[in-house]
């Protein structure tokens, strides 16, 4: 079978290669699912049947990598506004998620992926719904990449009855999910192990998870030092803060993706560096109720910090574009230093660092020969993004979802000219409305009216 070639020409190509080179009027040549060449393309490589896309005036860059997104919470959007963390978790999120069916999880994931693709994301990492097969099915259908994990919990009085399982049951179901789904669909779908939080994970579960992750050479996706209450709880029950306790258990390692990491001591930041722990920074959700992570300090020390959106019930805006913008603001604000966390660092966090955080840097995160063809085409020709005095800064501080014109993953277009190729967006929207209301009714969640409502 003859190879398929795609040639994108005349673009402003942000390669994110080892030298972070940018090519003006550059090209990207794709052969099947991989990048053949970037920059100045040899005309001899352009065959008569090559698909040619003239991207003059447009920007081509690697697809964005969302290292923490709760696909199972997409149908829960709007349930976490203006409440404290424990109210959100115990009275809203746990009842809602525990009332979901596998079909609900599938529809919720599809809706989440519509938003991800339309905002330029080509890879996601899901920290833990309850139905990994449903999430895998949706990711496979969408055409993007996904690392999926079950939200494993074996401890805590706040757990709904349906979630109260033994440590071994939680380990067994995750191991089976991995055997069934890891490295499927041309390698786009992967399965990791998930740990929710030390509020709900026993030391036995944490240690068993670490053992299995190492056995299968995959990662662990975990909320770590997320909230002040969590760290205080761990101090009371274990005698040391969260990260120190994980270090003592032997869990800090290069295959741990630690999410939020807001309440770290300076010594624990050093532990992250020492053990090569990866970080997912979720600025918008953290700013609501958690606090401010020491991201400038982490970056300065060379810790791999990536970016995630968190879930729709904690953030509402599930786009990496918004997260990059918020990342550009909050650290300057709370430190009163406009020079920290620069635009080029933020783009790195959203691409190459994201790939490293997901242990996938050998295939994704940059546009260079031999890498998988995961890229986006940005059309800056809009009032909100022009002029392009500083294109790199504009991507972080001025770009909107509507500027993302086309998305390619694994050499296949999954969105072209703002139209999804792999998913029926309108059908998903209609299904999502039905499933979201049905789950809320089953969960018995009633939100108070913010203004008087008159039924006419």
Mean pLDDT: 96
Give the CA-based shape: globular
Number of E strands: 18
Distance N to C terminus: 63 Å
The proportion of residues in beta strands is: 15-25%
Low-confidence stretches: none
List keywords for this structure.
456 residues, 9-stranded mixed β-sheet, 5-stranded parallel β-sheet
Would you spell out the secondary-structure blueprint of this structure?
Layout: E1 5-14, E2 22-31, E3 34-39, E4 51-54, E5 59-62, E6 64-66, H1 85-98, H2 102-118, E7 121-125, H3 132-142, E8 145-148, H4 167-181, E9 189-191, E10 193-195, H5 203-216, E11 220-224, H6 228-238, H7 242-249, E12 256-260, H8 266-275, E13 278-281, H9 283-289, H10 295-300, E14 305-307, H11 320-335, H12 343-350, H13 352-357, E15 375-378, H14 391-397, E16 404-409, E17 412-416, E18 419-420, H15 425-443
Parallel strand pairs: 1-4, 1-5, 6-7, 7-8, 8-9, 10-11, 11-12, 12-13, 13-14
Antiparallel strand pairs: 1-2, 2-3, 5-15, 15-16, 16-17, 17-18
Q: Your description of this structure?
A:
Helices cover 37% and strands 19% of the residues. By secondary structure, it is an alpha/beta fold. Strands 1, 2, 3, 4, 5, 15, 16, 17 and 18 form a 9-stranded mixed sheet that branches. The protein has a 5-stranded parallel sheet with strand order 10-11-12-13-14. The chain has a 4-stranded parallel sheet with strand order 6-7-8-9. The chain is globular. The relative contact order is 0.16. The mean pLDDT is 96.
Short account of what is shown:
The chain has 456 residues and is α/β, with parallel strands linked by helices. The protein has helices at 85-98, 102-118, 132-142, 167-181, 203-216, 228-238, 242-249, 266-275, 283-289, 295-300, 320-335, 343-350, 352-357, 391-397, 425-443; strands at 5-14, 22-31, 34-39, 51-54, 59-62, 64-66, 121-125, 145-148, 189-191, 193-195, 220-224, 256-260, 278-281, 305-307, 375-378, 404-409, 412-416, 419-420. Helix content is 37%, strand content 19%.
């Amino acid at each position: 079978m003859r190879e398929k070639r795609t040639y994108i020409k005349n673009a402003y190509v942000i390669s994110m290669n080892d030298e972070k080179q940018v090519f003006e009027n550059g090209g990207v040549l794709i052969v099947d699912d991989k990048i053949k060449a970037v920059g100045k393309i040899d005309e001899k490589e352009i065959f008569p049947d090559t698909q040619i896309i003239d991207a003059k005036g447009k920007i081509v860059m690697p697809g964005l990598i969302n290292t923490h997104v709760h696909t199972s919470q997409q149908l829960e959007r709007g349930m976490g506004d203006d409440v404290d963390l424990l109210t959100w978790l115990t009275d809203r999120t746990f009842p809602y998620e525990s009332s979901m069916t596998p079909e609900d999880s599938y529809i919720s994931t599809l809706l989440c992926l519509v938003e991800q693709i339309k905002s330029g994301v080509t890879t996601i990492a899901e920290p833990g719904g309850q139905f990994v097969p449903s999430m895998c099915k949706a990711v496979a259908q969408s055409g993007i990449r996904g690392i999926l994990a079950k939200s494993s919990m074996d401890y805590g009085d706040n757990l709904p009855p349906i979630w109260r399982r033994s440590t071994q049951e939680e380990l067994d179901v995750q191991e089976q999910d991995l055997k069934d789904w890891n490295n499927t669909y041309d390698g786009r779908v992967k399965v990791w192990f998930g740990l929710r939080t030390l509020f709900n994970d026993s030391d036995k579960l944490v240690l068993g998870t670490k053992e299995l992750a190492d056995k299968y050479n995959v990662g662990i996706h975990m909320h770590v030092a997320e909230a002040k209450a969590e760290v205080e709880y761990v101090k009371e029950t274990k005698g040391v803060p969260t990260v120190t306790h994980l270090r003592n258990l032997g869990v800090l390692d290069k295959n741990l993706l630690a999410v939020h990491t807001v309440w770290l001591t300076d010594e624990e930041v050093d532990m992250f560096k020492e053990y090569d722990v990866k970080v997912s920074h979720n600025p918008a959700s953290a700013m609501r109720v958690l606090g401010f992570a020491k991201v400038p300090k982490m970056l300065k020390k060379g810790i791999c910090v990536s970016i995630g959106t968190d879930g729709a019930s904690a953030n509402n805006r599930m786009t990496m574009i918004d997260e990059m913008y918020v990342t550009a603001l909050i650290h300057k604000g709370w430190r009163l230093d406009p020079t920290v966390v620069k635009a080029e660092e933020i783009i790195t966090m959203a691409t190459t660092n994201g790939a490293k955080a997901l242990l996938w840097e050998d295939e994704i995160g940059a546009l260079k020969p031999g890498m998988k063809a995961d890229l986006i085409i940005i059309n800056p020709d809009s009032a909100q993004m022009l002029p392009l005095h500083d294109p790199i800064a504009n991507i972080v501080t001025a770009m909107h979802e509507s500027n993302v014109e086309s998305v390619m993953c694994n050499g296949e277009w999954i969105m072209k000219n703002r139209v999804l190729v792999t998913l029926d967006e309108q059908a998903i929207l209609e299904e999502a409305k039905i499933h979201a209301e049905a789950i809320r009714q089953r969960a018995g969640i009633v939100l108070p009216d913010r203004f008087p409502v008159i039924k006419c």
